[in-house]
Write a structure and sequence with these properties.
By secondary structure, the chain is an alpha+beta fold. Helices cover about 35% and strands about 25% of the residues. It has 15 helices and 23 strands. The strands form six sheets. Strands 21-22-1-23 form a four-stranded mixed β-sheet, with helices on both faces. The radius of gyration is 22 Å and the shape is globular. It starts with a strand and ends with a helix. The structure holds ligand EPZ. Ligand EPZ binds next to helix 1, helix 5, helix 6 and helix 12.
Length: about 425
C-alpha cells in the first residue's frame, strides 16, 4: 500500500502552479455528454477522480481522446447506454452528475446510488426532488436510481439545503427541458459557475449562476465548444496553508484570487502576510501564528474543503481556536490522527477546540479522506521528525503530483510502496 514518508521541519519556499478544478471538471465532463458534437476540454487536472469518470463515460459509449495530460476531445453521438456500471460510482460519487446529463439529453438515466463517504451520509434527496419537479419519474431499484421522462418541463424549484451537487445536477437536466426553470437557494461555488458557463458555451441559456437564484430557459440541442476549466481553489488553499504551517514563503500561481477570499481572510487573521496578484497569491508566515475561530459555510463563506487544512495549522498557533463544521457531520476524523502528533484538540459534536502547541512531532498516521489526508501531510511537513501517512490513495483522488509540487518547494517527502523504498529515502536524507 503506498504511503508518504515526510521529514518535517523545512519551511516551504518557492513557486507552485495550481491545476484545474476537480469539482468543476467533474460536472463539466458529465455535461459534455449533452451534445452530439465534439467538445474540447482543457486544463483538466490529472487526478484519479477525473480519470475514473472518463472511464465511466467511455463505458457508456462516449468517445474520449486524450490530447494531452490535461486536455480531452469528447464525442457523445454514439452513447448507446444510459446505465452506468456500479464499479464506477463505487470509486467516485460524482458519477451521479451523469443522471442530470443523461436525463436532460436522453430523458432517461440509470446510475447506481452513490454510497455515503468518509465525511458524512451525503444523501441526494435534493437532486431527486429537482428531477421530479422537472417531470421525471424517479425510482430506486436494486441500488440504481432510474430517472425517466416523456419530456422534461421547466419548473420552480426550491432547494431546502444549499447543495453544490444538486444545483449542478438539476441545472444540467433543466438546460434541455421545455420552458423556464428557476432554482432557488442555489450553491454559489465557483465550480457551479464554471459548469453554467460551460453549458452556455454549448448554447444553453442559464442566468444567475453564482447567485442563489439560477434561471434557465431550456433549449432543444447543445453544440460543440472548446472550454478551459477554472483553477482549483481548494488545491490553491491547501498550498497556502502549507506555507503558513511551515512558516514558509510560497507564490501560488494560476489562481483566481477572488475565489480564495475566505481563505486569504483567515490567513491574514492568524498573522500571515498575503499578497494578491492577477493570477497568483503569495503567502509569507515569518512569526508564530495566532489562534482564531472559523465556521465552514457554503461559498462565499469559509469552505468545508479547507477545514482540515486550517485545523492542522491552528494546532501550532498561539492560543485556543474553535473550528465549527456546519456542512458535513463527520469531518473531524483527522483530529485523532493529529493528536498522535502531539496536538491538543477536543472534538465536541461539530465543533473542535484546538489549543495550540509549540511543535508537533512526526508519527505514523492514516488519511481518513481526501482533504484530511492533505492536511495531515501539512502537519507532517510542519512537525519535527518523520511522519508516515498511510492510505494516500484518497489524496491522489484530488491532488495532481502532490508530492512533486511539495518537493519543488523544499519539502522532504517521498511516495513509497515498500519498507525498502522507505529505507532508501531515509538513507538519502542521511
Ligand atoms: C461537493 O460535494 C464537493 N464535491 C465536496 O468536495 C464539497 O465538500 C461539497 O460540495 C461542499 O462544498 C464535488 O463537487 C464533487 P453538497 P456535494 O451537496 O455536492 C447535504 C472534495 O473534497 N445534501 O453541497 O456532495 C449534504 O449532506 C469534496 O472535493 C442533502 O442533504 O456537497 C451536505 O450536508 C468533499 N441532500 C450539504 O447538503 C442532497 O440532495 C452540502 O452538500 C444533497 C446534499
Amino acid at each position: 500500500m503506498e504511503q508518504y514518508i515526510i521529514r518535517g521541519g523545512n519551511p516551504l519556499v518557492g513557486e507552485v502552479e495550481i491545476s484545474g478544478a476537480k469539482n468543476a471538471a467533474l460536472g463539466i465532463l458529465a455535461a459534455a455528454i449533452m451534445t452530439d458534437d465534439t467538445v474540447l476540454i482543457e486544463n483538466l487536472p490529472d487526478v484519479r477522480d477525473i480519470n475514473v469518470l472518463l472511464e465511466a463515460m467511455e463505458s457508456i459509449g462516449v468517445k474520449v481522446e486524450r490530447i494531452t495530460k490535461h486536455a480531452v476531445l469528447m464525442n457523445s453521438a454514439n452513447v448507446g447506454e444510459v446505465s452506468v456500471d456500479y464499479e464506477y460510482i463505487k470509486k467516485i460519487r460524482a458519477s451521479y452528475y451523469l443522471i442530470g446529463a443523461l436525463l436532460g439529453k436522453y430523458k432517461r438515466a440509470e446510475v447506481p446510488l452513490p454510497g455515503g463517504c468518509n465525511i458524512g451520509s451525503r444523501p441526494i434527496d435534493l437532486h431527486i426532488k429537482g428531477f421530479k419537479a422537472l417531470g421525471a419519474k424517479v425510482s430506486i431499484r436494486k441500488g440504481f436510481i432510474i430517472a425517466e421522462a416523456e419530456h422534461l418541463k421547466g419548473s420552480h424549484i426550491y432547494l431546502d439545503t444549499v447543495s453544490v451537487g444538486a444545483t449542478i445536477n438539476i441545472m444540467m437536466a433543466a438546460a434541455m427541458a421545455e420552458g423556464r426553470t428557476i432554482i432557488e437557494n442555489c450553491a454559489r461555488e465557483p465550480h457551479v459557475v464554471d459548469v453554467a458557463n460551460f453549458l452556455n458555451s454549448m448554447g444553453a441559456n442559464i442566468k444567475g449562476a453564482g447567485t442563489d437564484v439560477i434561471r434557465i430557459r431550456g433549449v432543444q440541442r447543445l453544440h460543440k465548444t472548446e472550454y478551459s476549466i477554472i483553477p482549483d481553489q481548494i488545491e490553491a488553499g491547501t498550498f497556502m496553508f502549507a506555507a503558513a504551517a511551515t512558516k514558509g514563503d510560497v507564490m501560488v500561481k494560476h489562481v483566481i484570487p477572488k475565489h480564495l477570499e475566505a481563505t486569504t481572510a483567515k490567513l491574514l487573521e492568524i498573522g500571515c502576510e498575503v499578497e494578491e496578484f492577477d493570477d497568483a497569491v503569495r503567502v509569507v508566515a515569518s512569526k508564530r501564528l495566532r489562534s482564531t475561530n472559523v465556521k465552514t459555510l457554503p461559498y462565499p463563506g469559509y469552505p468545508t474543503d479547507m477545514q482540515p487544512q486550517i485545523g492542522v495549522t491552528l494546532a501550532l498557533a498561539a492560543g485556543t481556536s474553535i473550528v465549527t463544521e456546519s456542512i458535513f457531520e463527520n469531518r473531524f476524523k483527522y483530529m485523532d490522527e493529529l493528536a498522535r502528533m502531539g496536538a491538543v484538540v477536543r472534538v465536541e459534536g461539530n465543533t473542535a477546540i484546538i489549543t495550540g502547541v509549540d511543535k508537533l512531532s512526526g508519527a505514523r498516521v492514516s488519511a481518513p479522506d481526501l482533504r484530511a489526508g492533505a492536511a495531515l501531510v501539512i502537519a507532517g511537513l510542519a512537525a519535527e521528525g518523520e511522519t508516515v501517512v498511510d492510505d494516500i490513495v484518497y489524496i491522489q483522488r484530488g491532488y495532481e503530483e502532490f508530492e512533486e509540487k511539495l518537493r519543488s518547494l523544499g519539502a522532504e517527502i517521498e511516495r513509497v510502496n515498500s519498507d525498502r523504498a522507505a529505507q532508501k529515502f531515509r538513507l538519502k536524507l542521511g
